C-alpha cells in the first residue's frame, strides 16, 4: 500500500449530522476490507482492547461473536460496523481521533481479517482544541 492510499482518509474534520466531530473514521483501504468481511461474514464490529492485547490492531468480529459489555464505549461506526473501545482505554484516549487503516501483515488470531496477509491498524491524532470543545471531553454514546 502506498503513502497516497493512506493519506486519502476520511478525517475527523468531518462531523456527524449534528456537527459533532467523529471519533473514529477509516481509510478507503479499511472501508474496502470491512465491506469484504461483511460480504463473507455478515454484520461485523470492532473492539480495541485495553487489556493484554492492547495495541494498534483492533479486533474485528462477527456481530454476536463478541459480547460488548458495560465496560466498553462505542466510538462510532466505520462502513456500518460499530467500533468499541474499553472504558479504561477510552479515558486515556478520549481526546484522540482514531483512524482505522490497513497494513500488510497477519491479523489477530481471532480477528476476521487474519489469513488475508493484511490487517487492520489504527492511527491516531489528538483532537484540535475546537474539536475537543465540540465533544465536551465526553464520549457521545
Structure characterization notes:
- With 141 residues, the protein is α/β, with parallel strands linked by helices.
- It is 23% helix and 30% strand.
- The strands form two sheets. It has a four-stranded mixed beta sheet. It has a three-stranded mixed beta sheet with strand order 1-6-7.
- It is globular, with a radius of gyration of 14 Å.
- The model is unreliable at 1-13 (pLDDT under 50).
In short:
This protein is α/β, with parallel strands linked by helices.
Any chance you could write out the topology, listing elements then pairs?
Blueprint: H1 3-7, E1 24-26, H2 28-41, E2 44-48, E3 59-62, E4 72-78, E5 81-86, H3 87-93, E6 96-104, E7 118-126, H4 129-135
Parallel strand pairs: 1-6, 2-5
Antiparallel strand pairs: 2-3, 4-5, 6-7
Amino acid at each position: 500500500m502506498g503513502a497516497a492510499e493512506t493519506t486519502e482518509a476520511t478525517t475527523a474534520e468531518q462531523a456527524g449530522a449534528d456537527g459533532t466531530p467523529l471519533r473514529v473514521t477509516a481509510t478507503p483501504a479499511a472501508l474496502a476490507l470491512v465491506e469484504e468481511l461483511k460480504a463473507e461474514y455478515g454484520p461485523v464490529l470492532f473492539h480495541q482492547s485495553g487489556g493484554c492485547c492492547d495495541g494498534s490492531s483492533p479486533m474485528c468480529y462477527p456481530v454476536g461473536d463478541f459480547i460488548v459489555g458495560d465496560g466498553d464505549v462505542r466510538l462510532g461506526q466505520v462502513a456500518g460496523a460499530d467500533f468499541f473501545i474499553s472504558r479504561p482505554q477510552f479515558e486515556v484516549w478520549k481526546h484522540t481521533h482514531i483512524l482505522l487503516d490497513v497494513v500488510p501483515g497477519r491479523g489477530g488470531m481471532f480477528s476476521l481479517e487474519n489469513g488475508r496477509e493484511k490487517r487492520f491498524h489504527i492511527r491516531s491524532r489528538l483532537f484540535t482544541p475546537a474539536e475537543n470543545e465540540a465533544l465536551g471531553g465526553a464520549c457521545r454514546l
